[in-house]
Design brief:
This protein has 220 residues and is mainly α. Helix content is 72%, strand content 5%. A two-stranded antiparallel ribbon has the order 1-2. Helix 1 runs antiparallel to helix 2 and helix 4 packs parallel to helix 5.
Length: 220
């Protein structure tokens, strides 16, 4: 584009009688403008890489970059012995992105952990049913306290279960003894069998007690 413009300027200059030397001066001025434009483009690209940009509006971006530069002025006298290094800056940016990503992952894990704690809190209060007391579970300390309460609760249930089994065993033993005593009242030659034989005129000779069925049986 500049070459075309330069040719047009040369032609116009010749048409109006401007000498070759004057044309050379114009050419140098145009080259200077071209270099300035290139320098501005490079500066714009660098500022974009350093600070980002608002949009494609150059004026708004210039205002934005100016604000960012003003924010950094207070640090201008710090670390003067450190030379600017584009590669180091790029590496630091990559590190920052990596750490930001790890931070986001950690925040998501923490949020999931908090949700798990709330579930533990809800289930624990539903199971323990403590009168006048609500267990909160927001930290690892709370979690350990609830774990202890649940362990005590489970131990209590296990102890009650063992006691219940002991009572059932005792009742079963008593029942077996009672059945044994009852069975001794029956059988061939027992007083019950003789009495039953008499009242049935000898139709039934024996009356027995069935342990499994828990009932009385008669035999002819």
């Amino acid at each position: 584009m500049l070459a075309t413009t330069l040719r047009k300027i040369k032609i116009s200059a010749l048409q109006i009688g401007v000498g070759r030397q004057s044309i050379e001066v114009i050419r140098l001025n145009i080259n200077s403008v071209d270099e300035n434009l290139s320098s501005k483009d490079e500066t714009r690209i660098k500022l974009d890489s350093y600070f980002g940009k608002v949009n494609d509006d150059l004026e708004k971006n210039i205002l934005f970059w100016g604000q960012k530069v003003d924010e950094l002025k207070e640090y201008k006298d710090m670390a003067k012995e450190i030379e600017y290094d584009e590669n180091k800056l790029s590496q630091l940016k990559n590190n920052w992105r990596e750490y930001s990503s790890k931070k986001e992952d950690l925040q998501k894990k923490m949020e999931s952990f908090r949700d798990d704690l709330k579930e533990v809190e809800k289930d624990s209060n539903r199971i323990l049913l403590l009168e006048g007391e609500y267990l909160h579970c927001n930290t690892s300390v709370d979690l350990n306290a609830i774990r202890k309460q649940l362990k005590d609760f489970i131990d209590k249930i296990e102890n009650n279960k063992d006691n219940t089994l002991d009572v059932i065993t005792i009742f079963e033993e008593i029942e077996a003894e009672e059945k044994e005593k009852v069975s001794e009242l029956f059988g061939k030659g027992s007083s019950v069998s003789r009495y039953f034989n008499e009242i049935t005129n000898g139709l039934y000779e024996e009356v027995t007690f069935n342990h499994e069925a828990g009932g009385i049986e008669v035999k002819r």
